[in-house]
């Protein structure tokens, strides 16, 4: 087999997590538990040596207030008042994202999803029935729904005080711990949208017990230099005064978007994977060739045989079936 075809696709939530085997606080067993999966490292797909392991991370980035209020984002209000009346700002409804994702995860035990902003998870979770809450707890315990970052929101790193950062992490992490136990504890930072990154933020992640950090928006000159020198990943010394302050840190290749040609959301314009054997529009070979070229070009910028593709964007997965159906085809 040619080297370009030696690729192993992994649909994962996040592989950089410590394995924890205990049950979440208050978790009840449900019909889903028969799949014998678990949270943490032990629940991760096994990577293959001498192959390029491509980690497909299904995710959504949901601003806790930006162009709309928190409630407008959560409930999906598309219009905001303006001088001319009501104007359309952004199509985004986080409640529909979580409704849809949970149903798609239940269809296939191999599917994974990460969620970041605890403010929205808290709001949605408190609206659910006890039965649905138990289902969500089981998905978390099985490692199929995983929390990354885990703060109340994804904070800015340039103009904030460290006290505010600690407070909003405390608020989000306390909710996750009280609700889901140890399996709800994030072990990787996910700062994909702040416009710039500070050393103190990295230091806080180390002091809070995180094992790694993923960053999205790097300075374009810094990113170009890192790509050329294969230094997109590093052990970041986040403090000169604290012992053990090194933090595994990785810059994401496409900021946090999917690669061109592989955006499979209602908000995207890329073609789906058309695999009908008799369809004149069948594009499987075209998609596969584009994917192989994409990941092999990416692999040249990293030192290891493991690369990450972020399969999601702002407020994606309002119709999660579109994403997961096409990801399943891509993996096959």
TrEMBL record:
Protein name as annotated: Glycoside hydrolase family 38 N-terminal domain-containing protein
A GO MF term: alpha-mannosidase activity
Record's keyword terms, sorted: Signal
Domain Glycoside hydrolase family 38 N-terminal: 53-331
Coiled-coil regions listed: none
A Pfam cross-reference name: Glyco_hydro_38N
Gene Ontology terms: cellular component: lysosome
Domain of life: Eukaryota
Signal peptide limits: 1-22
A biological-process GO annotation: mannose metabolic process
């Amino acid at each position: 087999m040619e080297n370009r075809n030696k690729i192993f696709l992994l649909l994962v939530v996040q592989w950089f997590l410590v394995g924890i085997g205990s049950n979440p606080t208050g978790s009840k067993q449900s019909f889903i538990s028969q799949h014998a999966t678990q949270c943490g490292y032990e629940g991760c797909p096994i990577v293959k040596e001498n192959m390029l392991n491509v980690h497909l991370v299904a995710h959504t980035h949901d601003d806790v207030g930006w162009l709309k209020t928190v409630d407008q984002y959560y409930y999906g209000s598309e219009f905001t008042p303006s001088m001319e009346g009501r104007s359309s700002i952004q199509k985004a409804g986080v409640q529909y994202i979580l409704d849809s994702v949970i149903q798609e995860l239940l269809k296939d035990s191999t599917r994974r999803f990460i969620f970041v902003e605890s403010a929205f998870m808290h709001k949605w979770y408190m609206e659910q029935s006890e039965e649905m809450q138990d289902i969500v707890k089981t998905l978390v315990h099985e490692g199929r729904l995983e929390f990354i970052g885990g703060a109340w929101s994804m904070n800015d790193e340039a103009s904030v005080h460290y006290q505010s950062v600690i407070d909003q992490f405390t608020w989000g992490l306390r909710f996750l711990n009280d609700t889901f136990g140890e399996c709800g504890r994030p072990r990787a930072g996910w700062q994909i949208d702040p416009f710039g990154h500070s050393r103190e933020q990295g230091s806080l992640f180390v002091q809070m017990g995180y094992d790694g950090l993923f960053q999205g928006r790097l300075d374009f000159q810094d990113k170009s230099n890192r790509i050329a020198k294969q230094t997109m990943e590093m052990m970041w010394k986040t403090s000169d005064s604290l012992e053990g302050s090194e933090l595994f840190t990785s810059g994401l290749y496409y900021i946090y978007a999917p690669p061109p040609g592989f955006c499979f959301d209602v908000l995207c314009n890329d073609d789906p994977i058309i695999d009908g054997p008799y369809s004149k529009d069948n594009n499987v070979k075209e998609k596969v060739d584009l994917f192989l070229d994409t990941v092999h070009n990416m692999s040249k910028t990293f030192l290891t045989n493991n690369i990450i593709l972020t399969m999601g964007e702002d407020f994606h997965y309002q119709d999660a079936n579109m994403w997961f159906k096409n990801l399943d085809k891509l993996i096959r």
